[in-house]
């Protein structure tokens, strides 16, 4: 009898499907994916894919972004309740209010937003390209939503002031400066690498502040053989697999995104068997949202 993985592989071929997985997914899901990456990588893959079906192992806004970038393809989210609480902190109505209060301001939205919010956005960004995008907007009044931590980190690096919304990721904000200090005390030779969704006092203690794929690139090229990783713990799987001679310590074992962990191998198989759960975006919203995502992809082409 075929194993679960064999069944997935077989059905994937029959359906002409590609499996994309975020770096925070369960290790076994990352391992069966055709491509694992950060939000920016996955957006690019979705845009380039010539498969008929995209099985998106991640959270809702990511699958929605893929559906916007790949119209005509079926985008499946294996677990329909995999959401992102930070993305839900800002609504299109709230953003419209902010725009009214700040006439003439450009809206930069983190990709962790709904399609409706992206449709009200001038340019999207991810944690990998936020700083670069903000540098191109110097001198303009900018509203940044929803992540206050990415917003304040990227604006301080880009040297601009912005109106920053007060959203946050509850997983990253669990990581405290004291956790970093304790980990440094235990592993004094280790470098500290943090995600920009972390609180400012955590980022301030980091040697590097990077997106999840940025962390993977940095870990491979750095001379350091030990690293303390301040982000969701799913990233440790690839860090360890791709750098078997190096040591990686989570800043906080409890930094686990339960939404990212809702996707299992069984659910990937059921998604392919039953072609569920298809993510559809209203075409009018999708058309508007695509402009802001395309702008981001254009600005970050050289990365
Ligand atoms: P990356 O874009 O760095 O993968 O992080 C996004 C994230 O936190 C997923 O919600
Ligand atoms: Fe959302 Fe945070 Fe989970 Fe990323 S880690 S999906 S920002 S809740």
List keywords for this structure.
43% helix; Rossmann fold; 303 residues; four-stranded parallel β-sheet; alpha/beta; binds 1,3-dihydroxyacetonephosphate; 3 domains; binds iron/sulfur cluster
Task: Describe it.
With 303 residues, this protein is α/β, with parallel strands linked by helices. It folds into three domains: 2-83 and 260-280, 3-Layer(aba) Sandwich (Rossmann fold), CATH 3.40.50.10800; 87-168 and 286-301, NadA-like (Rossmann fold, 3-Layer(aba) Sandwich), CATH 3.40.50; 175-250, Rossmann fold, CATH 3.40.50.10800. 43% of the residues lie in helices and 15% in strands. The protein contains 14 helices and twelve strands. The protein has helices at residues 4-15, 27-32, 39-48, 60-69, 92-101, 115-119, 130-135, 148-158, 177-186, 200-203, 212-221, 235-242, 265-274, 283-299; strands spanning 17-22, 35-37, 53-57, 74-76, 106-110, 123-125, 142-145, 163-164, 191-194, 208-209, 226-230, 247-250. Strands 2-1-3-4 form a four-stranded parallel β-sheet, sandwiched between helices. Strand 7 (142-145), helix 8 (148-158) and strand 8 (163-164) form a beta-alpha-beta unit. Helix 4 packs across helix 14 (283-299). The protein is globular, with a radius of gyration of 19 Å. 50% of the residues are buried. The model has no long low-confidence stretch (mean pLDDT 96). Iron/sulfur cluster binds next to loops.
Give the SSE string.
HEHEHEHEHEHEHEHEHEHEHEHEHH
CATH level-1 class of the largest domain: Alpha Beta
Average the pLDDT over all residues and give the rounded result. 96
Write the CATH architecture name of the largest domain.
3-Layer(aba) Sandwich
Strand arrangement, largest sheet?
Answer: 2-1-3-4
Number of domains: 3
Radius of gyration (CA) equals 19 Å
Listed once per kind, the bound small molecules are: 1,3-dihydroxyacetonephosphate, iron/sulfur cluster
Secondary structural class:
alpha/beta
Total helices: the number is 14
> Quick one: how many beta strands?
12
Q: Give the strand content.
A: 15-25%
Distance between the termini: 44 Å
CATH homologous superfamily placement of the largest domain: NadA-like
- Helicity level: 40-55%
- The CATH topology of the largest domain comes to Rossmann fold
Report the sheet with the most strands, covering strand number, pairing sense and barrel closure: 4 strands, parallel
């Amino acid at each position: 009898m075929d194993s679960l993985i064999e069944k997935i592989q077989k059905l994937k071929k029959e359906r002409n499907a590609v499996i994309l997985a975020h770096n925070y997914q369960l290790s076994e899901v990352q391992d069966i994916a055709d491509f694992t990456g950060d939000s920016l990588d996955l957006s690019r893959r979705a845009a380039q894919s010539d498969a008929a079906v995209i099985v998106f192992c991640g959270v809702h806004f990511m699958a929605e972004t893929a559906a916007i970038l790949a119209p005509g393809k079926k985008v499946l989210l294996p677990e329909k309740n995999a959401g992102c609480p930070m993305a839900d902190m800002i609504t299109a109505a709230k953003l419209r209010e902010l725009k009214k209060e700040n006439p003439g301001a450009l809206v930069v939205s983190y990709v962790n937003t709904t399609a409706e919010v992206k449709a009200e956005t001038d340019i999207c960004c991810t944690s990998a390209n936020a700083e670069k995008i903000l540098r191109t907007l110097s001198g303009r009044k900018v509203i940044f939503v929803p992540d206050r931590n990415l917003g304040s980190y990227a604006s301080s690096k880009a040297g601009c002031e912005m109106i920053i919304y007060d959203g946050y990721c509850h997983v990253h904000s669990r990581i405290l400066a004291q956790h970093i200090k304790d980990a440094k005390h235990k592993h004094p030779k280790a470098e500290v690498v943090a995600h920009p969704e972390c609180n400012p006092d955590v980022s301030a203690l980091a040697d590097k502040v990077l997106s999840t794929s940025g962390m993977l690139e940095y870990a491979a090229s750095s001379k350091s053989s030990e690293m303390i990783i301040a982000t969701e713990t799913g990233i440790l799987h690839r860090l360890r697999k791709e750098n078997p001679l190096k040591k990686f310590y989570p800043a906080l074992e409890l930094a686990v995104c339960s939404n990212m962990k809702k996707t299992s191998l069984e659910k990937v198989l059921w998604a392919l068997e039953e072609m569920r759960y298809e993510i559809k975006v209203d075409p009018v919203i999708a058309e508007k949202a695509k402009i802001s995502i395309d702008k981001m992809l254009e600005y970050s082409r050289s990365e």
